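The pair is quoted verbatim below.
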Amino acid sequence: MQIYERMRKSAVAIVVVAAAIGVYLLPSPIDPEPFIVEGPPPALEGPLAVNSRLQQGRRLFVGQLKGPESFTADQEGNVYTGTVDGKLWRIHEDTLHFITQMGENIPECGSSQDFEPVCGRPHGLRLDRHGQLIVADSYLGLFQVNPWTGEKTLLLSSKEGADGIPFGFLNGLEISRNGTVFFTDSSSRWGRRHVRYEVIETNHLGRLLAYNPETGDVSTLLDSLYMPNGIAFSPDEDFVLVAETSIGRILRFWLKGPKAGTKEILMNNMPGYPDNIRVSDRGTFLVGITTIRFPGRLLPPFLDLIGPYPAFKRFMMKVVPVNWYSILLPKYGLVLELGPNGELLGSLHDPDGSLTWAVSDVFQHGSTGTATLPLPKGIIQELHGGV
């Protein structure tokens, strides 16, 4: 009996060791780098004090718009957006008008991220001086789209990219007064459907780029960025802000003046991971927070905790299905208002996510100062008044 028991324990030990060796030898899908945050998240006090102001809005187009990402509007009051199923839409008052499909219009569009490279996924979009939509499709490239006929013209393909590097994840977009298109490529390694890999890997393979529509030339303004996302010009266009989502930071890149061509950190150690940035009707910056980064009761935020340990991140991605990380995302809505030098002026909160969470864009339009926000369930929310 004792011999049998020793043999059983030995067999179990062999199996455990073999399994451990097998997991160790498995290739990890990511190649992470260590990243140490500047400090603990800021306290929820002063202009960051918890409130429920974000719950005072209303939902529009429930079940009709699937994951709108960004907005722009024309002088006639038409609002334009792109959705997760690869479609572009025009919104006039309470009516939706389909404009075009960025990729192939197949029944599976919007059902799974696996179909996004085929269907397209419009992210940043703005109207140029000629009334044409300029659209950054995360997978397909930079497009010009007629907002009335849906006619599409490919300006830059993602395969072509810039400086010999294909675009992996086109994201934010702005157009300057002289017509130059500024846009971000969040990663040259991971596409949008693998955004969790991008965030956990914490690489710095993103770029800020500029496209000249007159010459067709594209240039890299900044590289080695941590998942650059939304961008916004200052009211005078002397600088542009760039959200680095994966590390909770906002950069300022100077376009004019004695600092032209240089960058600096505008805001670091943020209370969440920034998505799009927009200029408000009073010249401040409105930042949608895709996921909060609040102080924990016992442990620091998850990404803070694992950031310094690449080996642990490699192991974690081998054994834990990537979709499981969604359970770590708190349903908490947050919008920040920043001054020109990164000072926090105010915030809007939805503490229990009852109306919204994962805010990607905050777009004010109309004479009443209505703020429109894309929401994760494919709806739009309107808020009146400033932050």
About this structure: DSSP finds five helices and 24 strands in the chain. Residues 2-25 form the longest helix (24 residues).
